[in-house]
Amino acid sequence: MIVLGISAYYHDSSAAIIKDGVIVAAVQEERFTREKQTADLPIYSISYCLEEAGIEMSELDAVVFYENPVLKFDRSLCLGLGRYHISKDYQDKLFSKYILQKLAIPQELREVFGQLGKNNLLYTVPHHYSHAASAFYPSPFEESAILILDGVGEWSTTSIGIGKGKKLELTHSIDFPNSLGLLYSAFTYYCGFKVNSGEYKLMGLAPYGEAKYVDLIKDNIVEIFEDGSYSLNLEYFDFLDKEVITSSKFEILFELIARKPETEIEIKYIDIAASIQNVIEEIIIKLAKNLAKSTKLKNLVMAGGVALNCSANGKLLLEEIFENIWIQPAAGDAGGSLGAALSYYYSQSESSREVDNTNDSQNSSLLGPKYDSEIIQEYLKFTNLPFHLYEDYNLLIDKIARYIDSGKIIGHFSGRMEYGPRALGSRSIIGDARNIKMQNQMNLKIKYRESFRPFAPAVLEEEAKNYFDLNSKSPYMLVVANVKIDKLINNTNKTTDTRYILDKINEPRSIIPAVTHIDNSARIQTVSKDQNRRFYDILHRFNELTGCPVCINTSFNVRGEPIVCTPEDAYRCFMRTEMDILILENCILIKEEQPIWNTDDNWKDEYELD
């Protein structure tokens, strides 16, 4: 049975294809269109998935959409009619954008691909059920509790349930407009970042502040109950009637206007970020405790956009509520396409679900396109770009490790592209974590983003326990843990002066300062030989040369753009930034040897890879 899943028309559109329960391919549309978090119907992603599976659309057993537009329509109707006199234009826009558009998906797909599978139908799976399926079915657990946290699906915003074997059941939910995702997004907006993409920034900013406003938030904005359920005070939100998510009462409560994007970050915004992060962590931990108590299960799986909050995930791990936790790497809406396909398969197939208790079935989340060396060489020769070819694998690995050791910043492009928001070594920018200047240099000269944004350490799995307070694997960079005390440098001074607080970024806090956040934590990726052999070998060789098994790993892109997909994307990013070295499979490009880059050149548009 071959099933195609689709996610579209909100954000992070994607497609995924499975064959007899095995994930064949999964990819986000943004990687092809170069429009970050695009909501477009994922035509390119679908085409790639079909090609990877070697099948035509008409041959599919099923095509499945990741939510139920009819239930979405139900919410729009129930809430919109009652508020139509207040916000007619906004309600009309929502109805057109999120309802009519999605109801037209089957016809749009037929216009591009012809018949929709053997039955020429588009099946649907409820939004949170898609999230749950994406988390449970690829997990290494025969049975587990399930926790889904996001902005909103059809009605649900928080769901809990149980997965056993091939059976999945969501038992309880919290419904819109009460939403943990929208609560965090409100503070994202208030602190001057973009909703649905700036939440990472809010999380990264939080450790610089003090959680002074926790009680203020809990007394006024959100009521938290002992079982983890919660209720928003809608007087502080405008998302029912406007595209602006917060009301004027936010500014009155905090005695501070909403920050304008790109302006100076005053200390009060930083403390507000710390406070809402604290509140979110409290709610998640209470939800998990109640779930563990009610299910009596030792395993937990998570998905939904809020499950990408790796700081909260780290706190959850420390609580040891569950013995094991597995989080879907594409936890946001991008993962909905995979969940929809898996949900349909396990509900319709008579096959049992096979589980490997030591590894998940996500294939290291390396599920996107790859480009062989021969194609890359053809592209480089066609465009007259100088490169060095390394036929000897060990020599190539040694060269990369030595470049890192010498302080070079490397764009690394190899194998299949990652599925989800994190680069895991295949489309990564790599640097030396021991270099105190590296974080600031990468942020300002490579990523062109805020200087406070932390970078993640990639560490050999077997060495992780020697550098971090982490007792589990973290292959998908979804958990924050502290750097071990014996790796820290004594530096406990903390300023509250807004003029200097972000200057503390450049103060060394550990022997791996470039990946140690201000609170001595790090967002960790553990790398094993089985999951990404080439990236593992680079780290291993670097460890042999330096005695350090840790490198910086950040996504291969610049601010505002998706992770690179093709060799052309990689070269363009390489030349637009101050990266030193570009690795395209076994081809090494050195910046000083490249022709002068003219951003107006159109040669890149004249050549298309097969």
Query: Quick one: CATH class of the largest domain?
Result: Alpha Beta
- The CATH homologous superfamily of the largest domain is called Carbamoyltransferase, C-terminal domain
* Biggest sheet character: 9 strands, mixed
User: Which bin fits the share of residues in helices?
Assistant: 25-40%
- Secondary structure: number of strands: 21
Overall average pLDDT: 91
Q: What Rg do the Cα atoms give?
A: 24 Å
Widest sheet: strand order? 13-21-20-14-15-19-16-18-17
In CATH terms, what is the architecture of the largest domain? Alpha-Beta Complex
Q: Beta-strand level of the residues, as a percent range?
A: 15-25%
Stretches with pLDDT under 50, minimum 5 residues? 600-610
Query: Which fold name fills CATH's third level, the topology of the largest domain?
Result: DHBP synthase
Distance between the termini: 28 Å
Number of domains: 3
Shape: globular
